[in-house]
Design goal:
129 residues; Aminopeptidase; 26% strand
């Protein structure tokens, strides 16, 4: 059994040391944001920390931020994805309760393969100088 836990922002500092390595791994894989910015936002209560908990260990961690009717999944990483990926529906339900009309994910292209109900809306392009 896998549970989705939204960490209470007033207690996130107690849990963050056990989850931050997963968030950092997600950010380092994409380089779409800065770990220190995400960490500060989570610890300040501007972003939420979500955990996939199997009763014994944290299997995955994610962070979200609400922006003008959009719930942005700013980072997500974990182990045994097939076990915790269905928990994304719980985050989507939270977003809907918060009157969000859109769920947006920042991540690697590989998410397209496992999130077939999402579509590519934007592209990030780069040129090395």
């Amino acid at each position: 059994m896998m549970d989705l836990i939204c960490v209470d922002p007033t207690r996130v500092d107690e849990v963050w040391p056990y989850a931050k390595h997963l968030i950092k791994a997600a950010i380092e894989a994409t380089e779409l944001s800065d770990f220190r910015d995400i960490e500060r936002a989570v610890l300040d209560g501007d972003q939420l920390l979500w955990l996939a908990w199997d009763g014994q260990a944290i299997m995955a961690a994610a962070t979200t931020q609400l922006l003008k009717g959009v719930c942005v999944l700013t980072a997500c990483s974990g182990h045994h994805r097939e076990r915790w990926l269905p928990l994304l529906h719980g985050i989507e339900a939270y977003a809907a309760r918060e009157n969000c009309k859109t769920m947006r994910i920042y991540g690697r292209k590989g998410w397209q393969r496992v999130l077939d109900d999402y579509r590519v809306e934007w592209v990030v392009m780069e040129k090395q100088l």
